[in-house]
Design a protein that fits this description.
Elements lengths: L28 H14 L3 H14 L10
Length: about 70
C-alpha cells in the first residue's frame, strides 16, 4: 500500500446517480417493527424499505391527512 495517493485526476462515479445523506430521525418502535417485518418478508434491509416508501410518497406528492380527535 502506498503512503500517499494522487486523486487530482479522479472523476465522479458514473454509476452513482443519487447520493444518500445520513440523518437522525425519531420513529416509534412499533413503526420500526412494522417495516422490519415487511423488509424481512421482501428480503431487503428495513432502512432501504423505509427509503423506498418515503421516495414513493415524495414522487407521488402524497399528503398526510391528520384528524385530531
Amino acid at each position: 500500500m502506498r503512503d500517499n495517493y494522487d486523486f487530482s485526476n479522479s472523476i465522479q462515479n458514473p454509476y452513482s446517480k443519487k447520493h444518500k445523506k445520513q440523518i437522525t430521525i425519531r420513529i416509534d418502535e412499533d413503526t420500526i417493527e412494522f417495516f422490519k417485518n415487511m423488509a424481512e418478508e421482501k428480503g431487503i434491509p428495513y432502512q432501504s424499505l423505509i427509503n423506498l416508501y418515503l421516495r414513493d410518497c415524495a414522487q407521488s406528492h402524497r399528503e398526510l391527512h391528520v384528524s385530531w380527535k
